[in-house]
C-alpha cells in the first residue's frame, strides 16, 4: 500500500508499505482524511532536537525513533472500518470513525504520532484500537470529522483555564491552535474573545470562528488595547511568555498552549509582582476528544472555514512547505 513517510527530513511517498494486519482488539481502517499538524512540520525540520529534548525529560517514556529510518506520521484522522482482528467487537465494516491517536496491542501502547513501525494517517490504511473508536455521527463528513483532534486541543486549553463566560479572553496567535481555542471559547459562551495576530488572514479567520475583536500587534501591544482576565499563548516562540508577563494586567491567568522547542527566558519577578498564575497545557483527554466530535457533528462548531487545502499523498511534501506561510493556509487535509 501507499504511505507518505519522513525520510532524511523530506516527505516522500512509498508504494511498498506492507498492509497492517489487525490483532486482537484492533481494526483495519481505510484513511479518509488526515490533517497536517504543526507538530508534524516541526518534527520534519527539527526531529533530532525534539528527540534530544524528549530524552532529557524524566517521568515520561522516551520516543524510540530512529531518524535514519522512515518515520510514519499523521494523527488527525477519520477512517472507514474495513476489518476487525480476531475476537474483536467493533462497529460494522463501512462505519466512519475517528479515535484518539493511540494503538493498543499485546506489546503495549503506541502513540500514533511519530513512529518507525506504527502507521499513521498519511497512509491508505492503518490500524486503530477498537475500544477507543468513536463512530462519526449525524452524517458528518470525513474531512470535518478529521478536525476532531485539533479542536480537542483547543477545548483542553479552555477547560484548563477555568474561564467563566463573563471573563474576557485574549488569544495570542491565531494559527490552528489559537483558532481551536477561539472556537472552544465561543462554545463555552465566553462573552469577550479578543484575538491577536500579525496576519490579517488569520485575524479574519479568528472572527469567523468566534472572536469578537481582533488586534494587530504590529500596531500596538494587545495589552494596551484590552484588559483580559485570561490570556492564551498559542504562538510557541521564545520571548512571548515573558512579554505577556511584563505587559499583562495584574492577576491574570496565563494558559500556555504554544509549544516552544527552543530555550526561553522569563523574569519570574514580573509574574510574582503581578501574582499571575501560569498553566502549561498539552493534548486533551478522551472525554474532551468525544466532546469535540459531538460539537462538530451537532453544528456547534463549524470547522469548514479552517480547511484551506486538500492534497493527495503525493502532494504531502509540497503541502509541508506551503504551510510555512501563515497567509496561505490554516489546515490542509490529506485524502489518501
TrEMBL record:
Top-level taxon: Bacteria
- Gene3D superfamilies, alphabetized: Medium-chain alcohol dehydrogenases, catalytic domain (3.90.180.10), NAD(P)-binding Rossmann-like Domain (3.40.50.720)
> What CDD domains does the annotation carry?
Zn_ADH8 (cd08262)
User: What keywords does the record list, in alphabetical order?
Assistant: Oxidoreductase
Query: SUPFAM superfamilies attached here?
Result: GroES-like, NAD(P)-binding Rossmann-fold domains
For whether the record's keyword set contains Cytoplasm, the answer is no
Q: Name one Pfam family in it.
A: ADH_N
InterPro entries attached here? ADH-like_C, ADH-like_N, GroES-like_sf, NAD(P)-bd_dom_sf
Q: Where is the Alcohol dehydrogenase-like C-terminal domain?
A: 176-297
GO molecular function terms here? oxidoreductase activity
Alcohol dehydrogenase-like N-terminal domain ranges (all copies): 23-137
Which protein are we looking at?
A: Zinc-binding dehydrogenase
Q: Which organism is it from?
A: Mycolicibacterium neworleansense
Its lineage opens with: Bacteria, Bacillati, Actinomycetota, Actinomycetes, Mycobacteriales
Amino acid at each position: 500500500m501507499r504511505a507518505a513517510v519522513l525520510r532524511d527530513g523530506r516527505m516522500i511517498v512509498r508504494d511498498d508499505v506492507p498492509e497492517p494486519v489487525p490483532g486482537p482488539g484492533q481494526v483495519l481502517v481505510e484513511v479518509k482524511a488526515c490533517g497536517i499538524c504543526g507538530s508534524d512540520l516541526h518534527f520534519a525540520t527539527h526531529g533530532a532536537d525534539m528527540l534530544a529534548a524528549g530524552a532529557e525529560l524524566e517521568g515520561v517514556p522516551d520516543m524510540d525513533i530512529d531518524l535514519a529510518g522512515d518515520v510514519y506520521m499523521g494523527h488527525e484522522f477519520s477512517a472507514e472500518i474495513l476489518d476487525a482482528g480476531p475476537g474483536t467487537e467493533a462497529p460494522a465494516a463501512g462505519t466512519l470513525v475517528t479515535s484518539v491517536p493511540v494503538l493498543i496491542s499485546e506489546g503495549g501502547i503506541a502513540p500514533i504520532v511519530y513512529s518507525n513501525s506504527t502507521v499513521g494517517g498519511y497512509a491508505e490504511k492503518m490500524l486503530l484500537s477498537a475500544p477507543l473508536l468513536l463512530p462519526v455521527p449525524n452524517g458528518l463528513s470525513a474531512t470535518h470529522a478529521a478536525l476532531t483532534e485539533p479542536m480537542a486541543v483547543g477545548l483542553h486549553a479552555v477547560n484548563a483555564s477555568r474561564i467563566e463566560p463573563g471573563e474576557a479572553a485574549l488569544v495570542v496567535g491565531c494559527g490552528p491552535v489559537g483558532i481551536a481555542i477561539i472556537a472552544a471559547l465561543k462554545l463555552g459562551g465566553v462573552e469577550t474573545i479578543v484575538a491577536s495576530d500579525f496576519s490579517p488572514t488569520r485575524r479574519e479567520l479568528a472572527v469567523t470562528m468566534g472572536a469578537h475583536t481582533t488586534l494587530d500587534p504590529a500596531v500596538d501591544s494587545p495589552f494596551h488595547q484590552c484588559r483580559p482576565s485570561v490570556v492564551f499563548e498559542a504562538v510557541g516562540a521564545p520571548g512571548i511568555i515573558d512579554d505577556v508577563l511584563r505587559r499583562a494586567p495584574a492577576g491574570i491567568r496565563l494558559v500556555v498552549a504554544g509549544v516552544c522547542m527552543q530555550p526561553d527566558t522569563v523574569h519570574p519577578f514580573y509574574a510574582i509582582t503581578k501574582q499571575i498564575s501560569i498553566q502549561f497545557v498539552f493534548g486533551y483527554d478522551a472525554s474532551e476528544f468525544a466532546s469535540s466530535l459531538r460539537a462538530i457533528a451537532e453544528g456547534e462548531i463549524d470547522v469548514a472555514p479552517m480547511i484551506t487545502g486538500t492534497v493527495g499523498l503525493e502532494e504531502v511534501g509540497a503541502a509541508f512547505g506551503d504551510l510555512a506561510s501563515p497567509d496561505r493556509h490554516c489546515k490542509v487535509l490529506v485524502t489518501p
